[in-house]
Specification:
The protein is α+β, with helices and mostly antiparallel strands. 25% of the residues lie in helices and 32% in strands. Strands 1-11-7-15-5-4-2 form a seven-stranded antiparallel sheet. Strands 3, 6, 9, 10, 12 and 13 form a six-stranded antiparallel sheet that branches. Strands 8-14 form a two-stranded antiparallel ribbon. This is Proline hydroxylase.
Length: 249
Amino acid sequence: MRPNTSIVTTAFAGVPAEARVAAYDWQVLAQDLDGFGCAVLPKLLSPVECRAISSLYSEEEHFRSHVHMARHGFGKGEYRYFKYPLPDLLGGLRTALYPGLVDVANEWNDRMAIDERYPVEHASFLKQCHEAGQARPTPLLLQYVPGDFNCLHQDLYGDLFFPVQVAILLSEPGADFTGGEFVLTEQRPRMQSRAEVVPLRQGDAVAFAVHNRPVRGTKGNYRVNLRHGVSRLRSGMRHTVGIIFHDAK
């Protein structure tokens, strides 16, 4: 996987979500998703925006629930699910990122012989979720302190799910925390699992496969199963925001 170098290296502070998302080379991002199961969007958020979102964690009025991972066997750490309406920047990014990913999602389902096709607009997809009884928002803010980690998992939340999601690192590695690497594993039929450690800086986003993706083999496409997690935090505090495009039951 390679970083998207076709955009300027300055952050998008103050730029509308649609404009900053459109600045990336989506052909390159789609190739990385197809080839590796993940793709990095450098500096999607500015440091100021990262700190502003991280600071919401203690403000309970923004959230619908608070999860302590250890109580559920998810790992060690905690996170909060946002409630509707989402903060403007996160809601805007959720809407703006979806169209760039929907072609990948539909192509993957076609290659995996899955009948589901996703509408081109996120609002239409959310309407389908709500009609299926999945009406709870899924974007979340995660917080880790030393010793915390997130077990390998998949964020599905119901029968209807979008096959790609996005995580944005809000803290600066080496300054705010050490350890805590984003990890993606891929299990191929009759093969050893493959691990992908994705290096991120503050404000970088990673788009990645939620569940399955197709891989071309000598006899056509076959499905591989993916899970993601976070390695043990060694020091400091790490915040991440997750943008999941389907809603939950």
